[in-house]
Amino acid sequence: MYRKFLKTTKSLTVSLEKGLNALTTQEHNPLYFHGALPLYIFWFLIFSGIMLWMYYIPTLERAWSSVNYITSLPVLGQVDGKWVTDATNASTGIPYGAVVRGVHRWGAAGMMIATVLHMLRVYFTDRHRSWRWLPWISGVGLLAVLLFVGVTGYLLVWDNRAYALVVFTQEFLRSLPLVGGALADFFVAGGQITDYTLTRFFFFHIAGATLIFVLIWVHFIRLKYPAVTPSRATNFLTFGFILAAAGSYPAVNVTKELLEKYASDSRITQYSDYIASDAPAHIGTLVTNIRYDAWYMFPYYLIDKLGAGWAWAVLGIAVALLLVAPFYPKDIRDNIAVVTEAKCTGCTFCSLDCPFEAIDMVERTPGSKFKLIAVVNEARCSQCGVCVGACPFLAIELPNTHSKTIEADVMALLDQGA
Amino acid sequence: MTDTVEKKNKVIVGFVCQRSIPIQDMIDEHKALLDDPEVKVVILPCSGMVKPTQMEMALTKGADATFVCGCAIGDCHYRTGNLMIRARLEGERNPKLRKTTDKRKVGMFFFTMKDKAPFLEALKGFKDSVAAIGGEN
Fold this sequence. Notes:
The complex is a heterodimer. By secondary structure, chain A is mainly α. Chain A folds into 2 domains: 326 residues, Cytochrome Bc1 Complex, Chain C, CATH 1.20.810.10; 79 residues, Alpha-Beta Plaits (2-Layer Sandwich), CATH 3.30.70. Chain A is built from 15 helices and 7 strands. Chain A has a 3-stranded antiparallel sheet, with helices on one face. The longest helix of chain A has 28 residues. Chain B is α/β, with parallel strands linked by helices. Chain B is built from 4 helices and 5 strands; from the N terminus they run αβββαβαβα. Chain B is 34% helix and 20% strand.
């Protein structure tokens, strides 16, 4: 039943991609670069993050205003489709700072969307199981760290929403038995919120981003020639989308005073609340009706609606299912590549071509005719036979699909004639 | 008369990945394509398993042409099998096709499991081009 489900999801996915192939050709189908796309977007986040870092001040007093200085564009909302800014409050901030922050903000959304699509695509096409367990498990870790980095990014702005998220997070952590209190204190760097709290969030944000690189290395470690960049056309298109989003909807700060000032202005039809930060945080003043970003704040939505206990349960079950997924159902593994020692010349062709780094070239014993021999790591072998195609010496074979059998099949087909 | 018999016995040998086109539904019990009995196939776990020497063997032992069919480029179930056989047949990766092999008789197709019709169309084009070579010779 579960296998049938995976077969159906694969069929549906291929149908969707086939439609896109007609438009883009196979070489440029963005859905074929689903794994490289999050990494590509990550570079935008790194570079825009470094630029924001140059001006960001992680203290309670200055965090919000430093972000405001960077953006320098107090956008209020739209009038007849055009963005309205308040010139009286315009700072002399950083040129295009709002666009750079917009790239960071929209890039973050893009990376999460691309990552989730990547995960779904891998799952739906049944490419998450068996010998691929390490990329999948490290991918679950990457998703968790990405979520953490995204949430800490929201905290750095230090607006009303950031304060509410900190309070929720502390409640969430405190609900854990034994270690909850210590974790909650560790989260804010002490028993109460101080300047060290924002320094800690800043550390979490940067350390988390660094950890993403480490996990990407683990993600790739069993993949030969991993796709690290999409096609050039997809690159330009993604770059264009992010820049267009950042230019059209720059990320800005909105103060309560400005909103009140313009509240009576009937021309303003749509406040830019979904792209902007809130008013600066005031410790002790908890604004509970915060706006939840769908991509990064769904755990907080769960905490809000279900309470900390049930939120732990739901998230725990979800993570457990993701971690178990690559081990069920089990494949029949009776066609693992076998090396014939006497025939192996140590040419390395099979090792170079193995898509899953399942073949190591090791030193032979002294006095042997050849220096190296191929050794198959059975747990990593996918039984694909790419190594067999690479071997000119019939030294590596799949026992159930032997080259001699294939050649005999060819001869039999030729003997039959048309 | 002899020429006619040879043409009737035309055989094209294909090496087809089991995860690309829906090959199991496209062949009879003799591994001949239902839509074109002149085309006979060997089914493999992945197109990357094909050795260029096997395709050369098919040609030297009497096949009029030979081809490999793998998953869509960018969508190999085993990640890079289709890229490997493409590179081998294009002479960019070892083991390569022999220089003496008539490359016009060696086809490459890359299609998804939903691409039966486009595959048959591409195959027809390949057969026509091979037939034209026969005319030249």
